[in-house]
Design brief:
The structure is a homodimer of 201-residue chains. The first copy, chain A, has 11 helices and no strands. The first copy, chain A, is mostly helical. The first copy, chain A, binds a DNA duplex (30 and 30 nucleotides) through α3.
Chain lengths: 201, 201
DNA sequence: TATAAATTAGTACAATGTACTAAATTGCAC
DNA sequence: GTGCAATTTAGTACATTGTACTAATTTATA
């Protein structure tokens, strides 16, 4: 394991536990038992750490989506995919608490719009395929609204979870939010699709 | 206008524009043309400023809800009420970017659970009344889900707005998010209720 | 007028992010 | 094994920040 990835891992752990602003670069170095100078050799600025962690998060998301796309459309597998996306976000929750700094680097050093564009494109494709496969039908609820909802949900839930349920464990948080999102799917699931929802409710 | 309220106003403006962490206590004092010592006379810690602003936000929300409750249930008025709630959150957006610090004071010096409890109670009452008055009917979409959705939405939207649309003006942001929430109401609006939704879509 | 509240100006301190240097160690291609 | 580059250490330095404190002055108010 390279020092660089050890740094990323430890920094993320500290960010998750104590928050980004409560974690200084000297704290990270101490936790790794390396010198602060060495840390700044790999990451000149604290922001670079943030960016690297965000890239890691983005990469994780891409992989999860790609894997879903690799097989035939299936509502049950899509819900599992969403669950994996939530877990990935939870694993990187520490950086989402630094909204202030996130906002500062978005558009400059980190292309957030790209994440967002991809997300919506994936969701759109997936929902359309699930419509064709007969798992979903959009009559009462508009497809474009469901895309909006899913995009909104996936962007926000982790922030709300950190604020509202800081004491809950990952597993509890996951069931809570999966249940929430599946309730929305229940609006558009066909009889065929209903079966996939059960295990989440 | 008291110095205390001038401080609150200026601090909030700076927080909204540059973020909480980018705004130092010395900046606030300079913007007000008062001495830093004077500022710390009114607010010993920066956190106290945050708490005072949150109280102001909470108070604003309470007033908006109370005013709605003062008249007969009406879907159109409820949507206007939601719009006012969004505006109040937007006016205090600066502090919501300080998630890290918010999380630190929640449960200790600021009763966030109370805000949340009230919010859900209000929403519950309002929806039940609107069901009785025949504006809403809960068949395909569960009432408890709509409560979850509205609570979730009202907690999160401002954070997502600050991250995703930092360049948009208040008016544009408001129409975007009102449109989003009204789409969900469309699921449960009766024929009578439909009329209220039109102006937001 | 007297007392309290408010305000100013200044100092101090620990912690932080950032930047830099010089020397030592390690890894690796030749 | 030698030599070079990458890595790591240790240390210094600086501006900024939140916080805390003092003494003196001004303002408001009973």
């Amino acid at each position: 394991m390279t020092t660089r990835s050890r740094i990323l891992q430890t920094a993320l752990t500290l960010f998750n536990e104590h928050g980004m602003y409560q974690t200084g670069v000297r704290d990270i170095a101490r936790a790794l038992d390396i010198s602060p100078g060495n840390l700044s050799y790999h990451f000149a600025r604290k922001e670079d750490l943030l960016i690297a962690i965000l890239d890691q998060y983005k990469h994780g998301n891409d992989e999860i989506y790609q894997e879903y796309m690799h097989f035939e459309p299936d509502l049950e597998r899509y819900l599992q995919t969403i669950s994996r996306l939530l877990k990935n976000a939870f694993a990187h929750r520490g950086v989402f608490l630094g909204l202030d700094e996130l906002r500062a680097i978005f558009g400059k050093e980190y292309d957030y719009a790209d994440v967002e564009r991809k997300r919506r494109a994936f969701i759109d494709t997936i929902l359309s395929d699930l419509e064709k496969s007969g798992d979903l039908e959009f009559s009462t609820l508009d497809k474009s609204f469901l895309i909006d909802f899913l995009a909104f949900f996936q962007r926000c839930w982790i922030m709300e979870a950190m604020i509202s349920y800081p004491h809950l464990e990952e597993h509890q948080i996951m069931t809570r939010y999966m249940r929430f999102v599946v309730m929305q799917f229940a609006q558009v699931a066909t009889l065929k699709g209903q079966g996939a929802l059960g295990r989440w409710l």
